[in-house]
């Protein structure tokens, strides 16, 4: 199925006040055998890519089509199979009307959870990697109300273990091995891409291992901009920043956020400043308090796993902020007015 055709945006000079506006009439396609519906779909995808690029302050080069087709329900439908050894059929419309491609699917336990308990949104993202085609499907589900009771925990991320909680639970002790494996591969090579996929699978699996049944809220550090290496980020250990370059922190961050949404758990973030250097017992802050995976306070002598100490500080920082907010609300209710 060769539906990859050349499309381009007719780049008109827009006035400064309308520089982010792009109308469909300004997007033109070369003559091709694509159907009208496919051309319309391709135009809308090109417009989204262009608008996203225009909004980005660090634009860089003009974006290029990456080979992934985002097709709506008019092009892709998934239907349950009847009287067949397969579980589902994927119906993909092609250029010749009335002659779709039918692809049989054999499901598995993980996917069955979504097919059985979620609503499938017809349509999908069709992409090609090497000689293989992949179809990314979307499922949706109404999120439950947020919990009003339960524990609040802090989570610290690390390079020796993926997560440490303020309940002294540790998850993902193989993450360092996977990050080292990525660093040894040539960037862009097939081995590099395989290592990235292995890491992503491991991050997803580890996030799912976190029990949310008795939790009301999770608090994490917001360090999504760590790669920028600003003065604030340099407070974090050099070893951590170096290995972090090859680790998709947003993957873990978004995965836990999604799991919290699904389970009605609140998800909060705090500034990461000093959480790894602060003593959870006496509050003393010093850059030498932490030595690798061991935290040893130079003031009171408190010693503990460094990631666990940091997770306690994350939770303590959040609770202190909430106490301050509650105090302000109380003041505005008439007890104290400044």
Strand residues, percent = 15-25%
Percentage of helical residues? 25-40%
CATH topology of the largest domain: Nucleotidyltransferase, domain 5
Number of strands: 14
Tell me the major beta sheet.
5 strands, mixed
Shape: elongated
**Unreliable sequence segments:** 1-18, 227-235, 329-338
Strand order within the widest beta sheet: 9-8-7-10-11
Q: What is the chains' assembly state?
A: single chain
Radius of gyration: 25 Å
Count of spatially separate domains: 2
| Architecture per CATH nomenclature, i.e. the level-2 architecture of the largest domain | 2-Layer Sandwich
**H and E string:** HEEEEHEEEEEHHEHHEEEEH
Alpha-carbon distance between the termini?
70 Å
Class by alpha and beta content = alpha+beta
Question: What's the pLDDT, averaged over the residues?
Answer: 79
- Regarding CATH, which class of the largest domain? Alpha Beta
How many helices in DSSP terms? 7
Would you give an account of this structure?
This protein has 338 residues and is an alpha+beta fold. It has two domains: 71-140, no CATH class; 151-333, Nucleotidyltransferase, domain 5. It is 32% helix and 21% strand. The chain has helices at 36-55, 109-117, 175-183, 190-208, 238-244, 249-263, 306-335; strands at residues 69-71, 76-80, 88-92, 101-105, 119-129, 132-140, 151-157, 163-165, 170-171, 215-221, 266-270, 290-291, 294-296, 303-305. Strands 9-8-7-10-11 form a five-stranded mixed β-sheet, with helices on both faces. It has a three-stranded antiparallel β-sheet with strand order 1-5-6. The chain has a three-stranded antiparallel β-sheet with strand order 2-3-4, with no helix packed on it. Helix 3 packs antiparallel against helix 4 (190-208). The protein is elongated and about 75 Å long.
